[in-house]
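TASK: fixed-backbone design
INPUT:
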C-alpha cells in the first residue's frame, strides 16, 4: 500500500471545525517521524556536499579556471564566483517559498535536490580555461547560479518540513537535523578534499582529481530524490489545504502582514550567514593561504571541527527546547563578540593542536546559533507563509553576507594587511544578530500558527 493511500492517510486525521478530516501531529507514529528525519537528513546532506565541494577545492579551481592571474587575484576571482551565485538566492527564496506554500514542502524539496545534483554534475564535466578560455569561467558561473537557485529552497524547506512533523516539545531538536546534515555534507566534502590533496600531486589534482566530488552528485542526488518522493507532506500543510486556507500569493501576504518578523529574521540570520561560511567553508583556505599551514593539515583541522560541530548542534537543539530560542541565540552572539578576535589571533601558532582546539571552539560557539536558528525562523511565521518567510529571510541574509564572506574576508586582509580582519567582520555580524534576536518574540513554547 502506498504512503498516500487512504488507510495510511487516515491514521493522522481528525475532525476540523468544518467537519473535514484534519491531520493531528500527535497521531504521527515514530516510524513516520523516523522516515521524515532520515529523508530530510539525506536530502540536505547531498545538496550541501555538492555546494561545499566548490569552497573546499577553491585553490585548485582557481588554477584551472583563472590560470593567467596571480595566485591572490585568482583566488579572489574564484570566491567572487562563489559570491555571485548567492545573488540568485533571494529570487530562489521567493520562488521556492511560493511553491512550498502552494503545492507542498515535499514537492518543492524533491525538485530542488534534482536541480542541484544536475548542476553540480555538470561542473565536474566542464573544460578548464586551457580549453575554452574565458568561456570556461562563464560556464562555471552559470552552473554556480543554478546551484545557488536550488540551494535557496533546501535549507528553508527541510527546516519547515521537520518543524511541522516534530512533537511540540522537540521542534528545536528535530530542526537541528538540518544544520547537522549540512555539516555532514561539508564534512564529506572536507574529507574528499583532504584525501585528494594528500594522495594526488598538484598536477593530477588540477587535471582530473578536483572533478571527482562533483561527478558523484548525480547518483547521490537521484537517491535523495527517490527517498523524498516516498514521504507524505506535513500534517500542518495538509490541514491548511484541507481547510482551503493556503494563500495564492504567499510573498505578498508575507510583506503585507509579516514585514516586522521578516526584518528581524534577516538580522537574526546574519551571524549564521557570516559565521558558517567563514568558519566552516573559508577556514581551510585561510589557514593554508594566510597562516601558512600545510594544505592537508588545514583540511584535517576543519574535518575534526566539523565532526564535533555535528555532535554539538544536536545538543543545542535540545537546549533551545528547554531554555528557549532567544536565550541560546543571544548567548551565541555574546560569545562571538567576546572571543572571536582572540581566537583568530591564536590561529597564528606553530602548534597544530592549538589550531585544532581553536577551530573546535569556534565551531561549538557557532552551533549555539546554527542549531537553534531553523526552529526559531520556522516558528516566526504561520504555516501559510512559513516556507516563504524562512526562505526569503534566510536567503536574503546569505546572499548579501554569507556568499560574500570568503570574498570579503580575503579582500579585507588584502586591503588592511591585517590577518584578523575576518574576525572583526564576524564580531560585527554577531552584534547585529544580538539586537535582532533581542527584539523578537520567544516562540519555543507556543503552538505553530496556521
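OUTPUT:
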Amino acid at each position: 500500500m502506498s504512503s498516500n493511500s487512504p488507510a495510511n492517510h487516515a491514521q493522522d486525521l481528525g475532525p476540523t471545525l468544518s467537519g473535514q478530516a484534519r491531520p493531528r501531529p500527535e497521531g504521527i507514529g515514530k516510524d513516520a517521524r523516523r522516515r521524515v528525519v532520515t529523508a530530510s537528513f539525506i536530502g540536505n546532506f547531498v545538496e550541501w556536499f555538492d555546494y561545499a565541494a566548490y569552497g573546499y577545492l577553491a585553490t585548485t579551481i582557481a588554477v584551472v579556471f583563472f590560470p593567467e592571474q596571480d595566485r591572490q587575484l585568482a583566488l579572489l576571482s574564484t570566491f567572487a564566483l562563489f559570491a555571485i551565485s548567492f545573488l540568485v538566492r533571494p529570487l530562489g527564496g521567493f520562488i521556492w517559498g511560493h511553491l512550498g506554500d502552494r503545492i507542498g514542502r515535499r514537492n518543492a524539496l524533491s525538485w530542488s535536490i534534482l536541480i542541484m545534483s544536475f548542476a553540480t554534475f555538470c561542473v565536474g564535466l566542464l573544460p578548464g580555461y586551457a580549453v575554452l578560455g574565458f568561456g570556461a569561467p562563464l560556464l562555471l558561473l552559470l552552473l554556480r547560479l543554478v546551484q545557488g537557485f536550488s540551494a535557496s529552497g533546501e535549507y528553508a524547506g527541510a527546516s519547515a518540513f521537520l518543524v511541522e512533523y516534530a512533537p511540540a516539545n522537540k521542534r528545536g531538536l528535530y530542526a537541528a537535523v538540518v544544520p547537522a546534515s549540512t555539516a555532514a555534507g561539508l564534512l564529506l566534502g572536507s574529507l574528499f578534499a583532504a584525501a585528494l590533496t594528500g594522495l594526488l600531486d598538484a598536477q593530477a589534482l588540477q587535471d582530473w582529481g578536483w572533478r571527482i566530488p562533483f561527478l558523484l552528485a548525480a547518483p547521490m542526488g537521484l537517491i535523495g530524490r527517490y527517498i523524498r518522493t516516498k514521504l507524505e507532506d506535513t500534517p500542518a500543510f495538509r490541514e491548511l489545504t484541507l481547510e482551503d486556507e493556503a494563500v495564492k500569493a504567499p510573498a505578498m501576504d508575507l510583506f503585507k502582514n509579516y514585514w516586522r518578523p521578516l526584518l528581524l529574521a534577516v538580522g537574526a540570520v546574519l551571524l549564521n550567514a557570516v559565521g558558517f561560511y567563514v568558519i566552516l567553508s573559508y577556514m581551510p583556505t585561510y589557514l593554508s593561504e594566510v597562516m601558512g599551514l600545510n594544505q592537508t593539515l588545514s583540511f584535517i583541522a576543519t574535518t575534526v571541527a566539523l565532526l564535533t560541530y555535528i555532535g554539538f548542534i544536536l545538543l543545542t537543539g535540545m537546549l533551545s527546547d528547554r531554555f528557549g530560542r532567544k536565550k541560546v541565540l543571544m548567548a551565541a552572539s555574546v560569545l562571538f563578540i567576546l572571543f572571536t578576535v582572540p581566537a583568530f589571533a591564536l590561529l597564528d601558532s606553530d602548534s597544530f593542536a592549538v589550531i585544532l582546539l581553536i577551530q573546535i571552539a569556534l565551531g561549538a560557539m557557532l552551533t549555539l546559533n546554527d542549531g537553534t536558528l531553523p526552529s526559531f525562523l520556522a516558528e516566526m511565521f504561520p504555516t501559510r507563509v512559513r516556507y516563504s518567510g524562512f526562505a526569503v529571510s534566510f536567503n536574503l541574509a546569505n546572499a548579501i553576507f554569507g556568499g560574500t564572506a570568503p570574498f570579503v574576508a580575503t579582500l579585507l586582509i588584502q586591503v588592511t594587511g591585517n590577518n584578523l580582519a575576518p574576525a572583526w567582520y564576524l564580531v560585527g555580524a554577531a552584534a547585529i544578530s544580538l539586537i535582532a534576536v533581542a527584539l523578537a518574540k520567544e516562540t519555543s513554547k507556543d503552538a505553530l500558527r496556521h
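COMMENT: Residues 117 and 221 are 5 Å apart (CA to CA).
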